[in-house]
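Propose amino acids for all 115 sites.
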């Protein structure tokens, strides 16, 4: 919950059910939520980033402001396909993410994902 994975533009795309769930959580209509907090890119709806480069819903003191309804891609971290299926990507993620135990082997990481 350090927020390192919340930094950077793009990549957090939303599935249709997630859009409605987040809008309800924020007590907004679907259209209000999309126009205020999302942008359309590559044919998908993605979360915007704030002026600091972090996800628009990341607060450095409170962490994720929509944690109970955060997108599936966020919930999946660090067990995303690009890391689980590629040892080199896992090594990079392990070095960058304090949430990944540095003593964990790639095989153990994949085993944890499968469980």
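Proposal:
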């Amino acid at each position: 919950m350090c927020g390192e994975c919340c930094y950077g533009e793009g990549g957090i795309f939303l599935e249709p059910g997630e859009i409605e769930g987040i809008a309800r959580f924020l007590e907004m209509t679907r259209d209000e939520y999309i126009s205020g907090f999302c942008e359309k890119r590559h044919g998908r709806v993605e979360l915007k980033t704030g002026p600091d480069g972090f996800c628009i819903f990341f607060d450095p003191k409170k962490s994720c402001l929509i944690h109970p309804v955060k997108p599936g891609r966020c919930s999946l971290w660090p067990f995303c396909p690009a890391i689980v299926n590629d040892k080199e990507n896992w090594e990079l993620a392990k070095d960058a993410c304090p949430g990944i135990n540095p003593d964990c082997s790639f095989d153990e990481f994949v085993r944890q994902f499968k469980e």
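The longest strand covers residues 38-41. The mean pLDDT is 89.
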